[in-house]
Amino acid sequence: MPRKLLIMGAAGRDFHVFNCLYRDNKAVEVVAFTAAQIPHIEDRRYPAALAGSLYPEGIPIYPEDELPELLDGIDEVVFAYSDVSIDYVNERKRLVEAHGVAFSTFDIEGSMLVSRKPVIAITAVRTGCGKSQVSRRIVDILRDLGLRTVAIRHPMPYGDLAAQAVQRFASYADLDRYDCTIEEREEYEPHIANGAVVYAGVDYAAILEEAEKEADVIVWDGGNNDTPFFKPDLWICVADPHRAGHELLYFPGTVNFQHADIILIGKVGYADPANIERVRANAQRVNPGAMILLRESPLHVPDPQAIAGKRVLVIEDGPTTTHGGMPFGAGVLAATQNGAAELVDPRPYAVGEIAETFAQYPDIGDLLPAMGYGDTQVRDLEKTVNAVDCDLVLVATPIDLTRIIDIERPAMRIGYSLEREDGALSKAVRQAVLPTYRDACMSAK
After folding, report:
1. pLDDT of res. 41
2. What is the distance between the alpha carbons of residues 210 and 225, in angstroms, rounded to a whole number?
3. What is the CA radius of gyration of the chain?
């Protein structure tokens, strides 16, 4: 009899683990997935077109809060999503084992696909550490070396899973063609603006096969604090001094922190020096072989004078300030550093699913998370923004939010990037990539 498994996930890593380890494995029957973190992803099915011949009806997806009722007859539960505290993982483990069911976390090595091309993986210890700006900087370094680079993003399959198996983004029109959510646009649009092609989807073996056709180097731009889907030639982990200590407390970011070749401590220009040193000391203790780099993330504020004395609504990246637990972002920094009279609390004005988000994450603070996992949530976001009594809206999301919603009050977009003085980073990229690239070229001949 096949061993019966249940995979706990969030419509991303869980599907990848299934595809890599269980899809064609007759010794295992995956009975169900559970879903958490992301709204509107439960009560669906992982489709037969992706699940393979052993699952002609596909695989059901249930809300995680139904986990106790789903454990009857299950042999093992595999925990396969990211950016949760180790305490939370242990709590889930105790719940599962109390029902006489084995519990494990996903096989990190077993779910790393091997590429024919060099791979640079950018990961983090938490959501919102600044992976995307590091990824864009890596793309720039590789472009300066004359290498064609394709960025592959962590999955965010919130729609038709079969239709999203392999997605290629090379223009803003592609974002509309695939009906991307705000969260997807925030990850893909900056790469497109930087002149890079982006792949994402559900089936990462098929994605890798397509990306290798047009890339000299693959840049894995990870989501949350997940581990790489591809075996890296250079593994970078971004740490956050504003959440010092989290590098040892959150799953699976601890794995990135322990195994990375480079630990890049970002946003140091706004951080407490004691916290920077705390992260550095933890890195030296748990990963003594890693190169440690400190980098600033300069803010781009188009008109600082326009902020002074104003009552400001700040819109920040959604996942960073919700399940990422980050109490502020670039918008709050821009407002406080440039003399805003007040950060207007959006909670009294929140409607619909935005109000539900504040109820679910009561510690968000005086900022508005740019949540947009579906049309209803996007419209609720727009209504909330326009209901807030303020003088100015600071939009600190990675995308131009005005392309998605209409903002009726004066608005200013706040940006940030990784400082470019990175000779050590450039050298590490060259040393990791060029030998493998030359070997790949020789094999192709």
Report:
1. 67
2. 25
3. 22
Residue 152's alpha-carbon distances to 108, 122, 254, 373, in angstroms, are 18, 11, 22, 20
- Cβ atoms 23, 59 nearer than 8 A: no
The whole-angstrom separation of Cα 371 and Cα 81 is: 20
φ/ψ (deg, to 5) at 119: -125, 130
The structure tokens listed for 367 are 């900022």
The residues facing 119 across adjacent strands are 218
**What is the distance between the alpha carbons of residues 103 and 332, in angstroms, rounded to a whole number?**
41
**177 CB-contact burial (10 Å; exposed 0-12 / middle 13-18 / buried 19+):** exposed
- Coil vs helix vs strand at 131: helix
DSSP 240-265: -GGGTTGGGTEETHHHHHHH-SEEEE
Beta carbons of 79 and 8 less than 8 angstroms apart: yes
Q: What is the number of other CB atoms lying within 10 angstroms of the CB of residue 27?
A: 8
Dig out the tokens for 189 from the structure: 């649009």
Is the per-residue pLDDT at 445 higher than 60? no
Span 405-443, pLDDT tens digits: 999 999 999 887 777 666 899 999 999 998 877 766 666
3-state secondary structure of 250: strand
The Cα 84–Cα 186 span in angstroms is 21
Distance of CA 3 to the CA centre of its chain: 31
pLDDT at res. 42:
65
Q: Which residues contact 285 (CB under 8 A, 6 or more apart)?
A: none
